[in-house]
Fold each of these.
Amino acid sequence: MDELLKYQEVVEIAKKEIKFRKPEDYKNSKIQLGSCGLWQDGDQINLWTYWQGYQLKDIDNKGVDILLVGQDWGNPFKEEGQSIRERIQAIQDNKIAKYIEENEYISPTDNNLICLFKEAFHVNINELNPEKRLFFTNYSLGYRQEDTSETGNMTKSLLRKDSDLFDMLVNAINPTIIICLGKITYEVVVNKVVHDFVKQLQKGRPFEGIYYLSCRDRDVPVYGVAHCGARGISNIGNDKAILDSWIYIANKYEKMKKYH
């Protein structure tokens, strides 16, 4: 990619491409990805961006501090996700401003993410404008279709279907650092295979790599951490080690900001 696009230009390209992508080109043996009406009706790159990112109206000029990247948003057609879909719709309609409302039940994954950002970066990601400029997206910009499971069975080859769109996005929003949730997410972002992912994370150290911004001619530090869902935490088996990885990233980030 040679052209630096504005964020909303990237969103429109992604919506058109995924809407008209052939189903047989966007699947594996267990997952069928496709478009999603709720996402198509909005103005963000990913439904997760309605948690952190959508409020940054000056993103083309100021970029973001931390880009958090997951695998995929999940299945927006499942009944269990109705409440979050209703909140996203309300945000799109300018009726409410929060992805997660106060004092409501939230998933263990989201709760762990809240705790990690609070303990490591000292920011409350339930606030609309935390002290850091945060942006959440999934690498895959497709959505699991009705007969597909909510989680699991994602592959690197399926994630890479959206590599060009991800590259456009990262160049547009110009993050200071990137944090990847899970091994295969990290591998597709840094474009390399890593070994002993769990063993290193058990020692409290994230994986470290770079992402080259072709349109800006600079490298972005990339960190690979455990997914903060039940399976990822179970694999590490040590809450302290997970937090230590995030604290390590936060310390590196603060040193970068100090000298730039």
Note: The radius of gyration is 17 Å.
Amino acid sequence: MITLTLLHPIQSTPVQSWTFEHEPTIRIGRSSDNHVILYSAVVSRHHVELRQNGSKWEIVSLGANGTYLNGKQITQVAVVDGVVIRLARSGPNIQISLGVADSANDGKTQTQQIKTKPLTTAFPEVLPKTPLADLPNPPPALPPTRLDQAIPNREAQEDTIGEKRKANLPAPLFDIHTGKPLQVLHSLRDYQVVKILNQGGVGQDQVVWRQGQSWLARSLNPKWQDNSAAREQFHQQAQRLLPLRHPGLPQFVDFFEEEEQPYLVQEWVHGQSLGQRVEAQGSFSQERAIEIILQLCEALEYLHQQSSPVLHQNLNPDTLVQRVVVEELPAMDNSPEQPSPALNFGRLAVTGFLSLNTLATEVQPVAASFSAPEQQQGEVFAASDLFALGTLLVYLLTGKQPRLFYAQREQGFRFYPEYVPGITPELVAIVRKLTHPRPEERYASAQQVAAALQQV
């Protein structure tokens, strides 16, 4: 038996584990035909193979960016129990363990049994300093942070209570050495509930843990649990989301019902919302703003082209999260120590699904400022999602809320991009079409929007 464990890039805590019992060759890489799939730009399609040779295992590097052991690039070496390899100089760390893994059900470390179907995981991103406005509050983070975090060493963990009081920080959720939850509120089937993140509006979100990995479990607010319309709408939306697979979306992994309460389990997206980035750093350049909207267009085109189109209905700066990736800084003065990690923002992730806006008695001001006028009357179309592309683009360019550019003027009450300071005439024309009060007058698809923006 051999167990592979994906380690957090900063604290080296377990993120996810895979155990193989009868595989003579185990492939790791970015391609979907690997046993372990890691979505990272520096990971090759087929990066590493672990090959069994009698009673021993060998590591064989195949990736263009190399595989590293103790900071040195390797080509082919024997596996030593507990060894940690890094895929590329700035990629994910994988620990390799030989022998039987502990897999009890009482909160001890568990491994995920992989037989034939490979499990896809995302390379663990590190959280920025600013707390997320979106749902996830992942535990590992670079200090200082207001998010739940793992403490870098045992002495610091023992002194956590006093330090948290000084900094007004919440207690850590996971043990820094084992990756297991420090406190379990209750269980949902084989998931352990670690923390309830919110109970506002129609929905409720919880951090759950299973087999060495944390997830986000979305469900109904207990106040809405007995509402048959809410349960039916939640169930329908969850069933549409579960089969979706796109790098611009969270990974949806499970759906079940427990005591008449539906639960959708999805990836816990680690990153910083666009709202937080604008608040912290100001507006974006035109080139960068268009690049972000183009990524959003790609995700929307995928959603809208499903056999039963998936409409987001809640696009705003708080539901759009830029994943944070880790890159290495080169070691100074030929130091043998591992290079220090640096943060960089990566691909946009569209979160905030299952908003159940049509059931909510109150529309959140942030969402309302970006949403199409027909949504205020309970109607929603694919063109409603496209409307938000226009208001989001203006927000990224100016850092100002779209409500400031609504007015009663020559074309009636509507969004007027021509009064947005500094916006180019080419973008004015695109945003005016995107934000037309009548859905049929907008672009026909996200692909058309992307083509127009690429011309700019």
Note: Confidence is low (pLDDT under 50) at residues 101-169, 331-336, 361-366.
Amino acid sequence: MRVFIGYDKREDIAYQVCKYSIKSRNQNVDIRPLIQQELRDSGWYSRPIDKLASTEFTFTRFLVPELCDFKGWAVFMDCDMLLFSDISELFSLADDNYALMCVKHDYNPKATLKMDGQKQTIYPRKNWSSVMLFNCAHPSNRVLTRELVNKEDISGAYLHRFSWLKDEEIGELPCTWNWLVGHYQEPEDGKPDLVHYTEGGPWFENYRFCGYHEEWKAALSAMMQDTQP
């Protein structure tokens, strides 16, 4: 089980807690952070710095199929997430009929800002790409090469809307696997397996007491205790 987590140096603690929440439930997971500078240094990523990109992994997430040598299944997820369930349950939903599977949110945030003052933009299929279950071996993903991802004329909209795929090649995951804090509600929408602090998490001062802040703080505390010598 290969899991790629988007990494942004502004949210290192979010990445660490997200990783811990996965590993504490299943040790047999290969977790790899997508660190932009490392990808640049190794020749995988060469796009100019995009001032409109809200995170350092806005584009690098789409390198996952080729990073997996176009073989098997892999998960990409943002770092501002917390797992409540064993991620093997997400992999068990993989369906070879699809090139990619995601939660197909109908999401129009009301807030104009998110995280540490980043502008909140609204666009079609918003947050669909924040959790992606990639069928790396699917023929349609073969076009998703590093050359394509690095082309400056390939826009963020093209990639985040999955424009290299036909609509019928995009499978649907239940919303429990990308539970947008403040958007989905218990029990109407079920119970989350993976919480997404999409507008900002408890590691930011302005969001210390956001939805599911207690669960994140408990995970942070458990992680700190486990890492003590």
Note: The radius of gyration is 17 Å.
